[in-house]
């Protein structure tokens, strides 16, 4: 009921079966016990800030159970019952988790990495891929350790210890724009465009 009339941008399931629901006006948490019944579900509503800071763009539940939220106004982590700002005043549109537990975060100022204690800047990646600062839409590490980059110019990948490889028809005018990468249970990597 708290979310009536609000658009939902993203949903993530926690290990306990509960749902986190990102909206244009905050984040709702629906406990699992309310999901197996008809009718209205009770939820806890969290506000991350005013205006853009409350507009949820993405969610990631890390392997350690930490809930991460990207908004139009920053990156937040759920910590001891409340959300704490980790990156302020940067639009965060995508959060992926690497095999090392680091987060790969697409922001309005390019790719950033959270190593658990600090933010590492990778805004130079855009230049290496031949796109503007906002031209990378996803950085996804598959199970083999290859990082896939999706963006305005297409798909590129970087195998461990190697340089970036652009996948044809990368950078071709009118070529495929890619937004997300996903790996299924058989190991196939899929892309959306």
Summarize the structure.
With 193 residues, the protein is mainly beta.
How is this structure best described in words?
The strands form five sheets. A four-stranded antiparallel sheet has the order 1-2-3-4, with no helix packed on it. The chain has one helix spanning 124-129; strands at residues 8-13, 19-23, 26-30, 44-46, 56-61, 67-71, 74-79, 82-88, 92-97, 103-107, 110-114, 119-122, 136-141, 147-151, 154-158, 165-167, 180-183, 189-192. The protein is mainly beta. β9 and β10 (103-107) form a beta hairpin. It has one helix and 18 strands.
Q: Layout of SSEs?
A:
Elements: E1 8-13, E2 19-23, E3 26-30, E4 44-46, E5 56-61, E6 67-71, E7 74-79, E8 82-88, E9 92-97, E10 103-107, E11 110-114, E12 119-122, H1 124-129, E13 136-141, E14 147-151, E15 154-158, E16 165-167, E17 180-183, E18 189-192
Antiparallel strand pairs: 1-2, 2-3, 3-4, 5-6, 6-7, 7-8, 9-10, 10-11, 11-12, 13-14, 14-15, 15-16, 17-18
Structural features:
single chain; 193 residues; mainly beta; 4-stranded antiparallel beta sheet; 1 helix; 18 strands; 3% helix
Please state the structural category: mainly beta
Distance between the termini: 34 Å
Order of helices and strands: EEEEEEEEEEEEHEEEEEE
Put simply, the count of helices is: 1
Provide the residue-averaged pLDDT.
Answer: 91
Biggest pleated-sheet summary: 4 strands, antiparallel
Globally, the shape reads: globular
Q: How many β-strands, per DSSP?
A: 18
Supply Rg.
Answer: 17 Å
Which strands sit side by side, in order, in the main sheet? Answer: 1-2-3-4
β content, as a range? over 45%
Helix fraction, binned, reads under 10%
- Low-confidence segments, ≥5 residues, pLDDT <50? none
């Amino acid at each position: 009921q708290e979310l009536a009339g609000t658009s939902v941008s993203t949903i993530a399931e926690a290990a306990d079966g509960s749902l986190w629901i990102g909206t244009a006006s905050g984040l709702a948490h629906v406990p699992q016990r309310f999901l197996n019944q008809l009718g209205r579900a009770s939820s806890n509503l969290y506000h991350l800030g005013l205006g853009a800071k409350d507009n949820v763009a993405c969610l990631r539940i890390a392997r350690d159970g930490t809930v991460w939220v990207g908004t139009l106004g920053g990156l937040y982590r759920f910590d001891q019952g409340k959300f704490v700002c980790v990156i302020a005043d940067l639009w965060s549109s995508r959060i992926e988790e690497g095999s090392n537990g680091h987060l790969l975060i697409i922001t309005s100022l390019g790719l950033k990495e959270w190593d658990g204690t600090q933010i590492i800047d990778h805004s130079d990646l855009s230049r290496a891929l031949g796109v503007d600062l906002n031209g990378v839409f996803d950085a996804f590490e598959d199970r083999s350790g290859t990082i896939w980059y999706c963006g305005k110019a297409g798909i590129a990948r970087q195998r461990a210890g190697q340089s970036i490889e652009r996948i044809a028809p990368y950078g071709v005018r009118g070529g495929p724009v890619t937004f997300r990468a996903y790996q299924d249970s058989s190991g196939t990597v899929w892309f959306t465009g």
